[in-house]
Amino acid sequence: MDTPDFKVRTRAKLADRTMHAVLWLVALTFVGVLLVFVGAILKQGWPELNLHFLTSMPKTLDAGGGIAPELLNSLYLVAISLILALPIGVGAGIYMAEYAGQGRALRFFRLCVETLAATPSIVLALFGMILFVQMMGWSFSIRSGAFTLALLNVPVITRVTEESLRAVPRELIEASYGLGATKLQTILKVALPYAATGILTGVVLTAGRAFGESAILVFTAGTNTSDKFPDFRLSVPGETLSVHLWYVTSDGTLPDASQIAAGTAAVMILVLLVLNLLVRLLDRAIRRRTR
Amino acid sequence: MDDLLPATTLDAPGPPAQAGPARLRTAPLFRHSRLNRLADRGTRFVLLACTLLVVGLIGGILYFLAIRGAAAFIPMAGNTDKVATFRQVFLSTNWDPGDGHFGILPFVAGTFAVTGLALLIAAPTGVLAGVFIAKVAPPWMRTLMRQVMDLLVGIPSVVYGIFGLTVILPLVGHAWLADAPAAGFGVSAAILAVMIVPTIVSLATDAFESLPASLDEGSQALGSTRWQSIWRVLIPAARPRLLTACVLGLGRAIGEAMAVQMVIGNNPQWILLMRQATDQTPVLRFLFTPAATLTTELVQELPNTAAGSTWNNVLFAMGLLLYLITMLLILATRRLGRQEHA
Amino acid sequence: MLNPQIPETKPVKLAVRGMNFWYGEKKILHDLSMDIHAERATAIIGPSGCGKSTFLKCFNRIHEVSSQVRVTGDMLMDGVDINRGGIDQVDLRRRVGMVFQKPNPFPRSIYENVAFGPRLFGVRDRATLDDLVEDALRKAALWDEVKDRLKDSATGMSGGQQQRLCIARALAVHPEVLLMDEPCSALDPIATSKIEELIFELKDSLTIVIVTHNMQQAARVSDYTAFFWLGKMVEMDLTERIFTTPRERMTEDYITGRFG
Lengths: 291, 342, 260
Description:
By secondary structure, chain A is mostly helical.
């Protein structure tokens, strides 16, 4: 048999160099997309960002409205929905990490959490609309919005809680049991404190997601705000920043709709950049500890 | 251990001659209080209840959507007008609710067209970016890419929508279609692709990073170029997880509502419109005809329909269909996961 | 094993002169120099962490796949510097094959594993591929065991078979040098002796460099032995001499098991 000539073919090398360039190009394209994106939003919105815009009431027909109640409602709804979702999410996460074993039950619970996490928000909106807005008779209100928004938060919190608890070193848990601690004591005093930073990171991420959510809130919290400001009642409609952004652009009655939308988008991007920074700091804290 | 009994008194140390461990005079009673034990046992059930609530939620969503959706086909209390037949809804392209036509096929087709197109962009670029991060990029670029993806995934869909509306649509309009509206599948798919790419990238990166280093070394030791090793060994070995990444990305795209609604043009009659538009090349016609999907139609029409009307009920049936499709995709990822372990 | 009385007839294949090696900031190998003769088996022994595997991997520059490394000094193959002599590392790795500590077959069929290398270099013709695969599997003494199940997955084979498959995979591109990094450390005694027999046969046509922590193995298969300690070469000589009359006290202590 004659041995073929195993020279590395120039074609293979050319392909290698080309694909190396392509990989860099793809990566840099995404960096570019993000920069253009954030740049464009901030540039459009920058002229609108002033104290008047942030602190006055929106207008329905005239130009010059602000976003004060929307800003407040965004934060208020995120806070309430987190308060509703945290105990359930953390509870379910603890159960799955520490009590559910490794068998079929755990796999089923995980499938459910995953399914709930992947549920389109418009589907959650339909559910919230039937259950809270119509059946409970809460109509378009902050509480309808918060309860439905909580459904979005629960699976995310459950998952990070489970993952963070599983990352707790086994030796720590065993040391606690070795001293005669009960399971509850071990979880409360050893596992949860260790996992807390991880769970907190997840909560901040969840907050960011809830803050940007719009589909759910259009159909549960409504597209209006209370006439009073500030109004902390749970029964009043609670239009948020994201809903406002959508509503002014699609409704089209405001003469300065595009300026209002640009300003609102810029505010949202700024809030999210701050949240992102917070996550990064928390992440660094976790890594410092494990090192 | 809040309830240690303070009974630990030690013998005074004896003289060195009889040295030994100091002995306890009274055995301490390290016992858990009854309350403590009760709490320990009770917690289990409280936590189980939380978990079952999560499970129950899925059942609840399915139940309510099914009830309202079924009301479109079965006469029920609360219905205000004549019900439709299964055929008229699921097998018809005629959507004219004012006239009693409820064919939802245009929306189903629109959903698959726009998400398929988005996946066509996002899947290859996402997998390549994953390979780049896991195997090619220098450390600083790796960190940068992670942060870019974190930010892209965090941007709210309405902000994506407003970007499409105020930046991309005018741009496309100027470039190619001077007069025609640029809204449609093209711009929607591009925006959707950017929205789902972080999901695909992060899962693809994980997939490549979890491959044993010996595979890469083994193929490079034979004289593979970097790319030959990636193309012939790493991508095939990671395939089940890469497919999972794409399916999950598709799931996200299918469920996305607001961003698409803001740029797609919302025309339920898009099939008809596309047939009529003869003055453009077929590709441009397809990409830039205002269209609609399941989610955009829900956002568009739900506020305008009265509860109990067949129109409204059909919208809920569309929501149910959407949910079932998402669930099927999740189950598909399970199947893929099992294939990987086999 | 070579008899010290008979002079060496084979040319020098690999020559190392004053070579230093850094992993990032950390210096691992210090001022190494040695000659490796063609068609001989050279063993590198030493306690774990002495840098012997690191040294081996410098010959096909496989470190560069995953880490930041730096090399100074000369490493010549047939008189050409492999780091600076204009040799592409991809070409280099075709000519310098490698067998790893743990068998690392690709998750595909036995046939495809062996055909992988030739395919990289554009061999498409089925008949040629078949010949190359059979030839390589015969050289690796695996043909008779697998000829009826070439389409089976390679990951279903025993550890010893997997390692011989990896040897066949390396041989299929006809390398000039075969680097073996503790190739038997994950194998049982029977599989080990099969690999050792194989090394004995292969060195008729190849230059073999084998790293091992098993001194009996070095004594059995190699013609030359180098003893490494803490990133330095203590001594290198004919295997016969290293194991009977080493010049250095430290070598003797290591070989007789007094440390290591």
